[in-house]
User: Which sequence fits this backbone?
């Protein structure tokens, strides 16, 4: 299927870029983790957040379509920044998440 082929091509390009740009890739990953940590309020229900990530893994095991946990309101959006809380997370197909990027779709 065309979507699967496109996803594999994107994954291959990403892997190649990370291998060729290891320092930049590590910096990018560190920045994302720091942002997520900064955007997780003290009152966030960490058990609920973990459950969403676990549900995503389960969905990936039982379906043929890769899914990811997405921040509805991006952590680093251009116009607005969201929080890393359970009510700002959703499980969506990886292809949809990649096309959504860092945008907030009202």
Assistant:
């Amino acid at each position: 299927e065309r979507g699967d082929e496109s996803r594999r091509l994107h994954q291959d390009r990403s892997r190649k870029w990370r291998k060729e740009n290891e320092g930049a890739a590590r910096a990018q990953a560190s920045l994302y983790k720091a942002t997520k940590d900064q955007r997780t309020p003290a009152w966030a229900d960490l058990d609920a957040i973990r459950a969403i990530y676990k549900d995503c893994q389960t969905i990936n095991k039982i379906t043929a379509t890769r899914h990811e946990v997405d921040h509805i309101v991006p952590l680093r959006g251009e116009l607005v920044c969201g929080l890393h809380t359970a009510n700002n997370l959703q499980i969506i197909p990886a292809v949809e998440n990649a096309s959504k990027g860092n945008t907030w779709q009202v």
Observations:
- The first helix runs from residue 2 to 20.
- The longest strand covers residues 67-71.
- Residues 70 and 90 are 5 Å apart (CA to CA).
- The chain has a mean pLDDT of 89.
